[in-house]
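Batch job 17 of 40 flagged for manual review because the log was empty.
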Amino acid sequence: MDVNNLTSVYNQNPTLQSQYTLQQYLDLFGGSSTGTTGTTAQTQTTTPTSNASQGIIGSNINQYQTGGGGGGGNNPYMPNANVNTNYQPNYDYRQHIDYDPNLTATANQKQFDMYQDYYNKPAPSGIAKAINTGINMIPGIGTIKRGVEFVGGALKGVLPVNQRALMENELRGSGIYTDSIGRMAVGPDGKYNTPEGIMAGYNASQMDPTKENNAWDRRTSNITESLVDRTSLTAQEIADIVSEIEETGKYSGTLTDEQLGVKNLFSNLVNVNMNKYMFGKSKKKSQDIFDFELEKKKQAAIEKAAAKSRAESKRQYDPNKHGPNNYGLGSDGKQSYDSGQGFGTNATTGGPVSNKTGKGRTDWAKGGRIRRVRSYFDGGLVSLRRR
């Protein structure tokens, strides 16, 4: 990575200058010594290269600070009032993972009702209800409102689940914020050197703590080298601290930057790895919610198809023609006939069929109500049994 670019960013960022010497900042990225170790940014006179916008996260930092330039118009390293801090819990998922199969549905619901705020979506406020009522009274607004509700409700069932949005939402739940273009960012009142802010500038959707040579591990490696060079800590002692945070998400020791005689290096090590732990938990939870939502959509599609099949069967069924029992539609979409033997016969394929699933008729060959257990060709008599 170009040391000139790193130096240029450092010189233009008061937050970095207040937390690191230039050499410490370069060490975070594996930068080589500039020969000015211990000097502050104010003593640096390095001229930025003409291509300073490339090669490092956070370049063109003055533009971000003033709201100009690309990258969403905000500097992810500085407190940002425009960062989205609104966390939306998935209440259905919470009930799903905490549902006790040993209890009845009613007993489970009572448990959920005991913790309304955690398991149940808040009811609309009085103001929201009043606004909704007022909108309904406006002539001609009904059709528009129904259309909007369809987009936000019924259509939601067929739209794909937004995996990135799920992950960023769960990150917000852990206190890690992202800006409008998906970079991790310092919150409205936050600081950079914290578990939540230490990875500001990295694109969250492209991060994976389980991959080899990930961003957290690279930074840990660079910080470790600096700590070994400048303090009495050994590489093994540092590795043990990192392992503890990896397992528990916390550092139980008492070492500080001041005790070690460094500025922010040790706290950076702790915060980087706490961020890795928090990010990993959030990413795992967002994947679980994604799978849950996907399964809900599949089940909704199955139920919709079953309801359609039942409605069509009700339309087609004629007891005088099909017998006293309505066995639903066959796999060909036609009404099955009651054979008088406890099962229906599909109108065209002729096989015994079952409708236990409520998803339409299932023919003999596809696992219907009567199935062959042991055939003559298996070395025994033909044996049939009911499901």
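Reviewer: the log was empty due to a logging misconfiguration, but the result itself is present. DSSP finds 15 helices and seven strands in the chain. Unflagging and moving on to job 18.
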